[in-house]
Amino acid sequence: MNLTDSGLLTLRPEGVYCPEGDFYIDPWRPVSRAVVTHGHSDHARWGCNSYVCATTSKEILRHRLGEDIRVQAVEFGEKSVVNGVTLSLHPAGHILGSAQVRVERNGEVAVVTGDYKREPDATCEVFEPVEAHCFISESTFGLPIYRWEPQELVAAAINRWWSENADRGVASVLLGYALGKSQRLLAMVDPSIGPIVTHGSVAPLNAIYRNEGIPLPLTKNVLNVDKADLRRALVIAPPSALGTPWMKRFGEYSDAFASGWMTVRGARRRRSVDRGFVVSDHVDWPSLLQSVDESKAERVWVTHGYSSVVARYLQETRGLDARVLSTEWEGESMKEEAPAEGAEQESEGGEA
Amino acid sequence: MKAFLNLFEALDSSTKTTAKVAALNAYFKQVEPAEGAWAVQLLTGQRPKRPISTTEMRELAAEMAAIPLWLLEECYDAVGDLSETLARLVPEVVEASRGTLLPDDAGLDRWIQERLLPLSTLDLAERKVHLKETWLSLSANERFLFNKLMSGTFRVGVSQELVIRSLSETFKVPKHLLSHRMMGQHAPSPEWFEALVESEEGNGASHEAIGGQPYPFCLAHPLEDATIEDALGPISEWCIEWKFDGIRGQLIRRAGTTYLWTRGEELVTDRYPEIAGWADSLPDGTVLDGEILAWNTESNQPLPFNDLQKRIGRKTVGKKLLAEVPVRFRAFDLLEWESEDVRGRSLAERKELLTRLVPAEFLSEVFRPQDWDEARLIRSAAKSQNVEGLMIKRWSSTYGVGRKRGDWWKWKIDPMTIDAVLVYAQRGSGKRASLYTDYTFAIWKDGALVPFAKAYSGLTDKEIAEVDAFVKRNTLERFGPVRTVKPELVFELAFEGVSLSTRHKSGLAVRFPRMTRWRRDLRPDQANRFEDLQRYLGAEPTVAETEPA
Ligand SMILES: [Zn+2]
């Protein structure tokens, strides 16, 4: 299936494909050449012959897919031409090294956003709007009920929660996805409140971020913190850590979940944690619309989330040729942001 | 409104009783009487009348969010709660513009009295402006709470008992006195709240007995047949009577005036002139506990509940209906005698006083079976007597407040059951707002599935999650919040009776349907047929149409 009338991008069983350049973008099956938007497991799949990614994504990819993968790192904005197709990566603001993929041939431009977010944060490159004729956008939070508060407000709420717990002498367990979310949370909290402990799956990723020059507060392994200090600690862990023996060290604790899904009370309740903080690394409704508008695209493929809703809305309000792109990317956000629908489980814990 | 919002959040986020009581205590300690009155009423399940339709609320929210209605419905589907959906959709305003409508510290009472109740008296255009202003001056969470109050869907996980416990701890008023004072209908005024939490002083009992104030009803626990001998011991310790299938009532005669209260705390004296007339002959300072029954004067036994239904909704009663469905009060307990609160005396004593006061034909008959098997025999005649089974009360017991275990039991006749197919599902409310927990069931009639009952309860959380997942995967059609699902799952439903109904496609309505078992062993084609349900119609005359269409 052609995604652009010219056939610049097509959809194959393996994923989104550029025939002239002979590469896939975030393929969901092993292919020979994969351009990868970012390191989350549903975008960066194991088993491809070679990978292309942003420079700051390289170590993350190697950490997740193996030290022996063949990976070519590209600077943001750097153009490479293969068989008449110009390929470049542009910051997506989702996690460190996350990229939008821009392809151009004969003046026709298509952009695949991957996951993206507009609000700047200290742990990744700031989203850069890119104009395109064809814009392929995620829509994880593509409903008007999703509107993020400014990050400082959420940070203040998290710090208040932590320091109240510390005053009561109970640890604060803050749950979030290990890659990206955890580092962003670390950069949001006030380390003067108490020690910060990270789960074993988070620590190596912190090291990668620090090596890339991202300043993160001092974090400790649980074994290196006094029992008394643990009662004032902030614990950053993936949701899958809940209920494991690792958690027993903290004694009584208060827990909270950091995710865009926490907007909805029902999702908060089903998580059955004490608090829900709305921290998302995806676009909310207003910035999704803003991004579509700024792309100036006439054809928009909506994928990965509330695709049909967003596509219909864009058709009706903007008269755009907006369509639904069904992909096998579905589900990543579910794991990443963990809405806890039914039997949905995070795979994160076993991974790292 | 902030204090009440904090209380709501605390009650909503905790499942521990101690935490809930602590939150209630902290709240009541600081509350002004004007707000306290509303808070007590809302927490005990009384809600202001809905002043605006949800359609209007939807339209205004969509307009303010600049989105089409279909998109609002998509959001509702994702959120599962209309109040929350609308609260999230209305654009957030900058902090600074808050507090312009009402001061920042304005209590719940002012928001209800000045911003909610007036909606019902405004015309459409004014209503829109009024609600828009209100929404814009509230934070999203406050807006959510306001919407819950406005749409009449406010619910929070506390029982009346817990509210009373907290008031008792906070204001040092005995619990029984609080429940007594809360009985009946009261305007949520500051005076009422002050009187409610006023400490007991000297003239307590007689002071409380002024006017038509009823006593809290003592309630019974259901009894399982299999365990009866073990649970209750020798039958001689127990008073055995019919469990009537009417309306529980408290008949009060004080200072020359009669009051008839139902257990729903409704004052219904004028609806049952026969009872009121008879009660005028009772001496002042008398309070009877008993049942309002439709009465067949010829056979001298109760008429089916179905007949009583014809009287229930009527505020005024015509001659024809009075003749067709006469009612009678059958007393089974005495709460006040010669202006004295006698609830602390034993049932044996109270019954003794009662028989002196009330002629036999207005009394509930007491059986004296030799053993439990004989009691079973009596109970087996319940259907023919148009009663629900037996009441079993300990002769030595005092008259308790609420549902206290151990002294009062109800031993109902076995419910009827039918195997039916799940055909529609709807989201639940409150804690289950995002799960499909409300189901409609169908049985076979002429080769097609015909819906005949709705049921909510009876499944475990795990089963609910399973059915919910099934519904989400097997939706055939969607009408607003309702989904038509693939007819595949079979459940056993129990109910109390069947009656003819013009409001149901099936032509029959069942009373108190509930899910008793998931029949995973049955295929949908093995579910019951219409004829099976019809058979119960003949067998069971004590039926009523209480099930909404
Ligand atoms: Zn991602």
* Number of E-state strands of chain A: 18
Question: How many whole angstroms does the radius of gyration of chain B measure?
Answer: 26 Å
Please bin the fraction of helical residues of chain A.
10-25%
Going by CATH, the architecture of the largest domain in chain A would be: 4-Layer Sandwich
Quickly give the structural class of chain B: alpha+beta
What does this structure look like?
The complex is a heterodimer of chains A (352) and B (549). Chain A has helices spanning 58-65, 151-168, 181-188, 203-211, 227-230, 265-271, 285-295, 307-318, 332-337, 348-351, and strands spanning 10-12, 15-18, 23-25, 33-35, 50-54, 71-74, 80-82, 85-91, 99-105, 108-112, 134-139, 171-175, 196-198, 234-237, 253-258, 275-277, 299-305, 321-324. Chain A is an alpha/beta fold. Chain A folds into two domains: 10-145 and 282-331, Ribonuclease Z/Hydroxyacylglutathione hydrolase-like (Metallo-beta-lactamase, Chain A); 151-277, Metallo-hydrolase/oxidoreductase (Rossmann fold, 3-Layer(aba) Sandwich). Chain A has a seven-stranded mixed beta sheet with strand order 7-8-9-10-11-17-18. Chain A has a six-stranded mixed beta sheet with strand order 1-2-3-4-5-6, covered by helices on one side. In chain A, strands 13-14-12-15-16 form a five-stranded parallel beta sheet, covered by helices on one side. The model of chain A is unreliable at 330-352 (pLDDT under 50). Chain B has 549 residues and is α+β, with helices and mostly antiparallel strands. Chain B folds into three domains: 2-151, DNA ligase i, domain 1; 218-412, DNA ligase/mRNA capping enzyme (D-amino Acid Aminotransferase, Chain A, domain 1, 2-Layer Sandwich), CATH 3.30.470; 416-534, OB fold (Dihydrolipoamide Acetyltransferase, E2P). In chain B, strands 12, 13, 14, 15, 16, 17 and 20 form a seven-stranded antiparallel beta sheet that branches. In chain B, strands 3, 4, 5, 6, 7 and 8 form a six-stranded antiparallel beta sheet that branches. In chain B, strands 1-11-10-2-9 form a five-stranded mixed beta sheet, covered by helices on one side. In chain B, α1 (2-13) runs antiparallel to α2, α5 (69-79) packs across α6 and α6 crosses α9 (140-150). The chains are: A alpha/beta (352), B alpha+beta (549). The structure holds zinc ion (ZN).
